[in-house]
Specification:
By secondary structure, the protein is mainly beta. It is 0% helix and 56% strand. It starts with 14 loop residues before the first strand and ends with a strand.
Length: 115
C-alpha cells in the first residue's frame, strides 16, 4: 500500500470537540471526543456519528502543556496550561469500527479560526 500522507502523524490523546460547520456559530452543537492522531495537515478522531466525505467540520483541539506566547503557540512547563486550536477541517475518510462503535474520521485542516 502506498503511503499518501505528506506530514508525520503523532499519536496524541488530546481532548477534541467537533461538529458540523454550523457549530462555529452554535457551539452547543459540539460533541466531545479524543484525538487518535494529529499532524500539521490534519487529524483523525473517533466520533459517534458519521460525516460525508467532503463535509466541513468545526474542530476545537485542546492541547495540554501549550499556550500562546507572544502571539504564537509555545510549549510551556505549566502542565495545567492548555492551548485551544480552533479550526475548520474537511472530511477525507470515514471508517467504522463495529467492535467499539466508533467512526474514525480523517480530516485535513482548511484553516484556523481566530476569535
Amino acid at each position: 500500500m502506498d503511503e499518501r500522507r505528506k506530514n508525520i502523524r503523532l499519536e496524541k490523546e488530546y481532548h477534541l470537540e467537533y461538529g458540523p460547520f454550523s457549530a462555529l456559530i452554535n457551539q452547543d452543537a459540539l460533541k466531545s471526543s479524543s484525538l487518535v492522531n494529529l499532524s500539521s495537515g490534519g487529524v483523525m478522531f473517533c466520533a459517534d456519528e458519521s460525516f460525508p466525505v467532503g463535509a466541513q467540520l468545526f474542530l476545537k483541539i485542546h492541547i495540554a502543556g501549550w499556550a500562546h506566547e507572544n502571539g504564537a503557540p509555545a510549549k510551556v512547563e505549566d502542565t495545567g496550561s492548555e492551548l485551544v486550536l480552533r479550526t475548520i477541517a474537511e472530511v477525507l475518510r470515514v471508517d467504522f469500527d463495529a467492535a467499539i462503535k466508533c467512526y474514525f474520521i480523517g480530516a485535513k485542516f482548511l484553516g484556523e479560526v481566530h476569535s
